[in-house]
Amino acid sequence: MKSSMKKYIEAISVLQYVLTFLFMGIFFLALLLYLMFTSFWIVTVLYSLWYFFDYGTSERGGRRSAWVRRWTVWKHYKDYFPLKMIKTAELRPDRNYIFGCHPHGIMCFGPSCNFCTDANNFLEIFPGIQPTLAILSGLFRFPVYRDYLMSLGICPVSKVSLDYLLSQMGTGNAVMIVIGGAAESLWCAPGEHVLTLRGRKGFVRLALEHGADLVPVYTFGEIDLYRQVKFKDGSWMKTLQLYFKKMVGFAPCLFLGRGIFSSESWGLTPFNKPVTTVVGKPIQVPCIPVPSCEEVDKYHQLYIEELQNLFDRHKVSCGLSESQQLIIL
C-alpha cells in the first residue's frame, strides 16, 4: 500500500508533466517578450542570439541529457498509473528502427515515459538502442521549451530531422512516431480503440528509403486516462477543432481528468489507471532509396497485420476483454 505522501508526490509529478505539455512554451515566449521591456532586456537579446545560432540543432540529432532523463520525478510519474513496458523481441543494435506508436491519446503518457526518460530502463531492456521520440515540429519554435524537449531526446517529426537520424547517426537508432497524430486524438475516448492509420504511409516510405525496420507499438490504457468532450460531426465546435488542426497542426481537445489530491473532483490530472506499452517484433525492411507505391503498400499492409496481431495477443493480459476489437481507419 502506498502512503498518502507517496500518492501526493506521484500526482504532483504527473501534473508537472501536464502543465509543461500545455503551458511551458507559451509561458517562456511571454516571459521573454515581457523582459524585453524591462531592465532585463539583455536576457531576451542573449537568448535570441543563442536561438538563432542553435536553431537547426533539433533537426540534427538534438541535444539529449542523460541527467534530465534520469530525474527522480520520472520514477514517481511512472508509479502513479502505474506505467509498464513489455518487450516481445530483441532489437539488433546494427539496425535502425522506426517505432509506430499507437494510440495517440490526449498527451501520449506511455511513449513519453518509456522513450523520453529512463524510468522504465529502456536502455537496459534494449541494449545498444537509442530512442528518439518525434513530435510536432512547431513546438520547437518556442523558446526554452525547445531546449527542454531536446534534453529529453525529442526531435521534430520533419523529413529533414528523421532523415538525419536514420542516415547520419550510425546504427542502433530507434525513431518513435505517433502515427495517428492530431486526427487520432479527436477519437480518444475510454474503451474506444480507434486508430488513424490506413492513410498514413509516410513512415513506411521513410523506412524503405533508409532500410529501417518497422516496429509496431501499442499502449494499452492510454485512451482511458481522460474523459474527452466529443462534439458531433457538423457542429460548429467540431468544425472549429478541425480548422484549428489544419492551421496549427494539432487539435484542441476538451478533456476532463481528476483533481490532484482527490479522485472525486475534476481537474487536469489524468486518472491513475494502469498503462502498458507493448513493443512488438520488428518487421525487416529492405533499403530501397526510391520505393514504388506498390512496395510502400506491401509493407504498410504487413505493418497493419502485425499491429493487429500485437493487439490481439496482449489485450486480455492488459485488462481488455477477448471480444474487444481494434478499429483501424
TrEMBL record:
CDD domains: LPLAT_MGAT-like. Its EC number is 2.3.1.-. Pathway: Glycerolipid metabolism; triacylglycerol biosynthesis. GO terms for biological process: glycerol metabolic process; triglyceride biosynthetic process. Keywords: Acyltransferase, Endoplasmic reticulum, Glycerol metabolism, Lipid biosynthesis, Lipid metabolism, Membrane, Transferase, Transmembrane, Transmembrane helix. One of its GO terms (cellular component) is endoplasmic reticulum membrane. InterPro entries: DAGAT. It is a multi-pass membrane protein. It is found in: Endoplasmic reticulum membrane. GO terms for molecular function: diacylglycerol O-acyltransferase activity. The chain crosses the membrane at residues 12-34. Pfam families: DAGAT (PF03982). Belongs to the diacylglycerol acyltransferase family. This is Acyltransferase. It comes from Microcaecilia unicolor. The lineage of its organism: Eukaryota, Metazoa, Chordata, Craniata, Vertebrata.
